[in-house]
Write a structure and sequence with these properties.
alpha+beta; globular; binds zinc ion
Length: 228
């Protein structure tokens, strides 16, 4: 039932799970997190098991699946949103980790169907632009996965309509930081809308910030990304 392989990666992902709960991004057994395992025989994915309480999860309880979603060892069944995670890894070779949560302010924007504009300087640098809303699809389906990947595009976050938030990153820690940043952005966006509307970022600043985002991603590709 348990595995001792990939111990360092298991410990890192477990710490991210605990931080997600403590930051209020998920409650109970909702939300799921994964990490790409790069090795010679083709990538694998370390992922939270189905129905797990993320705060109580032991590192050895994380499941490992291949890129078709098949369990690699006899472990707990993988997250019900495995298709979503796999679609991102297949469609975005630069992504090393995926975090899916249901935080309140991001969920408000997702339910309202409102794309969140990049109102804060750091958002374009870290996320690549505003946070688009994926078309609705039933949780756990291939359709949800395809819609999410489309909304994600080349960015690091997307909202899932009437559902929640998806963020990605080079590492689990970065994907978590991106979730926290988007949730703060959503909060600022929604409170600002109560004041009569937000001032957009000046176009020149947004352009420089997008350039920084592209440079950072190019630098990551050049280093070969051995450390996920
Ligand atoms: Zn969900």
């Amino acid at each position: 039932m348990t595995s001792t392989r990939w111990q360092g990666e298991r410990a890192r992902l477990q710490r991210v799970c605990v931080r997600l709960v403590r930051a209020g991004l998920v409650t109970g057994s909702s939300g799921n997190v994964s990490m790409r395992l790069r090795h010679g025989g083709g990538d694998l994915v370390l992922i939270t098991p189905r129905g797990a309480d993320l705060e109580e999860l032991a590192p050895s309880q994380l499941a490992i699946i291949d890129m078709e979603g098949e369990p690699v060892e006899e472990e707990l069944p993988p997250s019900s949103e495995s298709a979503l995670h796999l679609a991102v890894y297949l469609g975005r070779p630069d992504v090393g980790a995926v975090v899916h949560t249901h935080p309140v302010f991001s969920s408000v924007a997702a339910v309202a169907g409102r794309e969140i504009p990049p109102l804060l300087d750091e958002v374009i640098i870290k996320i690549g632009g505003g946070v688009r809303v994926a078309e609705h699809a039933f949780p756990g389906t291939e359709e949800l996965a395809a819609n999410a990947l489309h909304a994600l595009g080349d960015r690091m976050a997307a909202l899932l309509r009437n559902h929640g938030l998806l963020t990605v990153g080079k590492s689990p820690e970065t994907a978590l930081e991106n979730s926290l940043l988007v949730e703060r952005l959503a909060q600022v966006f929604l409170y600002t809308s109560l004041t009569g509307g937000a001032n957009p970022l000046p176009a020149e600043a947004a352009s420089v910030e997008k350039e920084l985002y592209m440079m950072q991603r190019a630098a990551e590709r050049e280093t070969g990304d051995p450390e996920v």
